[in-house]
Structures are given as structure tokens and as C-alpha cells.
Amino acid sequence: AHTEAAPRIRKLSTALVNKIAAGEVIERPASVVKELLENAIDAGATRIDIECQQGGAELIRIVDDGCGIHPEDIELAITAHATSKLADADDLFRVQTMGFRGEALASISEVSSFRLRTRPADLEMGTEITVEGGVMTAPRPCGAPAGTQIDVRQLFLNTPVRRKFLKSQATEFAHISEQFTRLSLAQPRIHFTLRHNDKLVFELPAVDDLGDRIEQVFGTELRGRMIPIEGDQAGLRLWGFTGHPDESRATRKAQYLFVNGRWIQDRTVQHALTEAYRGLMMVGRQPVCFLFLEVPPDEVDVNVHPTKAEVRFVDPQRLYRLVLSSIRRKFLGLNFESPLQPTA
Ligand code: ADP
Ligand code: MG
Description:
With 344 residues, the protein is of the alpha+beta class. The chain has helices at residues 14-25, 29-42, 74-77, 89-92, 104-110, 160-164, 169-186, 210-218, 220-224, 267-276, 316-332; strands at 47-53, 59-64, 113-119, 126-132, 135-136, 140-142, 147-153, 191-196, 199-204, 226-233, 236-243, 248-249, 255-259, 262-263, 286-287, 289-294, 300-301, 312-313. Helices cover 31% and strands 26% of the residues.
């Protein structure tokens, strides 16, 4: 038997708690881009500009023209578990915003050299706050355009192991670019730009619909290979595009799925896609698709994964049938022997 005194229990410091949370949510520069982009979208921005240096390891800067933060709330904004997006437990089951945990800014500012500048449109003066490796300065007034600008420099400066595990600039930027692609597909009405090492990589002016955004990001040719689909089943709604069967890929990376506007990965939908293309595509090859699923908030739990990349459906079978039948129904009416008709 154990013969010594029981070890005493201590509460972790806020700084340590934030660092642990950062480990879950902020894996690499692309995670910062995702969180900050989601915040800008939640803020109602119509234009979002992103600038990265050295794969995001040196600098990630996001500028939006959204609602800004009230000067008296700035410290709260970077405090853990503080959010303007959830008021009570009921809200948790009908989340409309991308964020809601109040964790991102606390985590990011804990592991970087962080500066936030913001001004709500109805105020004349902006406010600035900096956090250096978790140490916050008092907010001070500054000149700023309406909206919010966040600079994240030297990511993981105080978590050397994490910094060491960063991959090459090109790899880190590829992850950033992928996060950017997902969010920009979900928000065609927002004007986005993405720069890397002072080079303009994407310039996506606001457009009316998904088809136009697909064309901006992936080119006219791919857009011409996409077939519009839609379907309804007992409260679930599916819409978007699925690729011509001879437009195939080696991986599922070009299968974009969004649930209530949020990019996710989902096994059920993957299986339904495989089934829908059975006999039309070589085994092992993957179709391209851009699928948007609208689900009543009480039929999907988005609170199961720290980065919300997976969700849980109350009735996955219904989802499976909806995806399968919407695609199959469309394919029945098409003759794949002849060239695709334009899909205006
Ligand atoms: P969450 O998004 O889960 O609420 P965050 O840590 O990402 O948590 O942000 C905390 C709060 O800071 C948000 O609830 C929001 O009120 C405010 N905020 C963050 N980014 C922005 C932004 N770009 N524009 C306006 N407000 C913002
Ligand atoms: Mg957030």
C-alpha cells in the first residue's frame, strides 16, 4: 500500500489553463487563421484581409470591417470563457455563430506576441491592447478604421516544443490556404484577400453565390464540371454542387461539406458519396463536391470537438439517404456520354 501522505491538489494558474487550451485549439498557424476569420465573420464583416509572413510563424494579420469591440470589453475579449455569443445553456443548443466558447483570443494571445486594435463604427477613437506571451498591457486609445485588426507575431514563442514542430513555410501556408478556402466558400458575399510574404495569393471580391465563389477559387474549368444538386428530407436541406463522375481525385480533399455554414468532416456523408458514385467512378477514386447541409440546430451537436471539425447528428441515416438520393436523382436525368450541359 502507498505509505506517504496524499499529494495536495492545487488549482492551475490562468496562464497555464490558457496554455493547455491553446494546445487543443491552436495546433499551427492555420488554426489561428481559422479562429480569427471566424471571429471576423461573426462580427458581420463585409471585407476581410489576411496577411501572413513565413507560413504564419512570423506574422498573421487579419483586418475586418465588422462591428468592432466596445472599449470596455477589450480585456474581456481576450479573457478565457468570455464571449458575446452565448448567454445561457439554451443558446448552446442553437448556436448561430461560428464561435461560442470564448477561448480563441485567450489561447492565441497566451502563445504569441499579440496586438488587437478595434473601433466600433459609432465611436471616434479606437482602442489598442497588446499581450506579450500572456502578459496584458492596459488598453489605450489609438486611431483605427472601423472594425478590428489583430496581429499575431511569433506564434508559440513561449512554447518552444510546439514552435519546433512547425513544418516548412510552404506546408504551413498550404494549411492556411486550405482554412481560407473553406471559409471563403461558405461566405461568397464577403470580399476576402490573402497575402503571403507580400505576395497576393487570393483576391476574392464579393459575389452572389457559391458557383461564382467556386469559379474564383478553383477556376472556370472546374466550375463547368460541377452539377447543381438540392434535396429536402424531413427538415434537412441539402444544396450545392457535385462533380461530374469523370472529375475524380485521389483523396477526399476536394470534398467540401458544410453543416449550417460550418466546414466539417463526416463519415456518413463520405459513405453516401461513395455509394452515389458507385459504378460511375473507379473504385478508390473520389468525387469533388461542395455540399451545404442545413440542419435544425436541435438535431446536430457541434460541441463535441475542440475545433468543431466533427459534429454529431441525431439521425445520421436520414442524412445518408438525403445525400445519396439527391445525387442519384440528379444523375438519373443526365447522360454522361454526352458533354455536360452548362449548369447556369
Ligand atoms: P468566441 O468567438 O468563442 O466568442 P473568441 O476568443 O474568439 O471567442 O472571441 C471573444 C470575443 O471577442 C467574441 O465573443 C467577440 O465578442 C469579440 N471579438 C473577437 N474577435 C472579434 C472581431 N474580429 N470583431 C468583433 N469582435 C470580436
Ligand atoms: Mg472566436
